[in-house]
Amino acid sequence: MTTHVLSDTRVLTGRSLRHILRSPDTIITTAVTPVAMMLLFVYVFGGAISTGTGGPYVNYLLPGILLITISSGVAYTAYRLFLDLQGGIFERFRCMPIARPSVLWAHVLTSLAANFAAVAIVVGVALVMGFRSGASVAAWLAVVGILALFTLALTWIAVIAGLLAKTVDGASGFSYPLIFLPFISSAFVPTGSMPGPVAWFAENQPVTSIVDTLRALLAQEPVGSGIWTALAWLVGILAVAYVFAAAIYRRKSN
Amino acid sequence: MTTAAGPEPTIRVRGIEKSFKDLHVLRGVDFDVAPGTIFALLGSNGAGKTTLVRILSTLLAADAGTVTVNGYDVGAEPAEVRGSISLTGQFAAVDEVLTGRENLVLVARLRHLTEPRATADELLARFALTEAGNRRAATYSGGMRRRLDIAMSLIGNPPVIFLDEPTTGLDPQARLEVWQTVRQLAGQGITVLLTTQYLDEAEQLADRIAILHQGTIIRNGTLAELKQLLPPATVEYVEKQPSLEDVFLALVGKEL
Description:
The complex is a heterodimer of chains A (254) and B (256). With 254 residues, chain A is mostly helical. Chain A has helices at 5-22, 25-45, 57-73, 75-87, 89-94, 100-128, 137-164, 168-173, 175-180, 196-204, 206-218, 226-251. In chain A, helix 3 crosses helix 11 (206-218), helix 7 (137-164) runs antiparallel to helix 11 and helix 11 (206-218) packs across helix 12. The radius of gyration of chain A is 19 Å and the shape is elongated. Chain B has 256 residues and is an alpha/beta fold. Chain B is 34% helix and 24% strand. Chain B has a 6-stranded mixed beta sheet with strand order 6-7-8-3-9-10, with helices on both faces. A 4-stranded antiparallel beta sheet of chain B has the order 2-1-4-5, with helices on one face. In chain B, helix 6 (172-187) links the parallel strand 7 and strand 8 (191-196). In chain B, helix 3 (100-110) crosses helix 4, helix 3 runs parallel beside helix 5 (142-154) and helix 5 (142-154) packs parallel to helix 6. The longest helix of chain B has 16 residues, at 172-187. The relative contact order of chain B is 0.17.
């Protein structure tokens, strides 16, 4: 019946992108905390951290900071989705003859655009702080691809939070554990310095494999089998979150 | 297609039941709405009016019963039903971040109209919103917001419009504006189903009135028919005191 999935998604994405353009502070806010964290770690703790790798600490730190940027940025998707549900515009869309998946995909694509804008700001600051990479175009494309997968996976989790939330605070609260996860990973310090059980957790949670892969790509080092672990985590989380979000979305019609 | 006397009803509701856990909100609702008429569903708060409208507009599935809207079954052909209807809910469903014009263009694009901007301009003019068209909807008064909401519902000329408590929370002037709009819709052959808890609203607007009480329609008829249910009126002569509404409207001096 509806063959308008693409055009409806485009129109609705245009709508939510306009929301962001009218409150660009959401992108600045997303970038400020990771930038502050980066300054703190490079200029305060960095001198005392031995990563065992050559090159400046900011090179070591940046991949984890980018993941933290995205983890906090996706909260805005939950927030905007929740406001749509509250304001009644969501119901208006749902009883119009528009393609059903478009309403959610518009929020997801907007999240991708907004988070990449925030990531660009953070990378810009990192460059000023001395971050350098001689990575090839292909390696940069792989970095962008992994960050896009990470954003998609976390955004679909944000969609679940937005659909289920009862309050505005509830809609965005889910992101705190996500922001915390990189701290217990190889994002800031090598896992070798951690005590046994913590190191075990750090080495086997998704953030470490993703951070290590990004770091290897940017440092022109071989990614090894870690990239497959990272991709498996990303695709797995994305698939599970998507299936849950779609089911909750469908259930809302009954 | 039947050739029975009278036109096919635009909305046909049969045996609709809906429960939320132990709460039986609707216990078998039946009624028809004839094409191009205004049908008012009257009931107190919590009578199930909104639940019924949500079922009619494909937002909620019924536990039992059937609904056809514009010839399509709500359960089996929801996409066709959505193409035939427009819903204006209890709270003006406008995008506050966008301007009035952008809201209208958005809906026109989603209805796949060929000239969304022209449609938007025409509706802004019709609802006296042209001047406010480039302001964000967040800055609108309650009446303006409701007019924008109804204007958005008219895009694409749906033959059936559901208005769920269209005047709840509006000031008297805005209420009269909405009433005038609803009468215009019916004048154009659009079938209107509205819910209200205000008796005078049903009296003013509706061709037929159904009273929803404890999950069923307890009475359904024209205003004259419903009035006949009471014993004949005794005639008394009393001095007509202006109501506060008369006073308010006279002082504010708004002619509608």
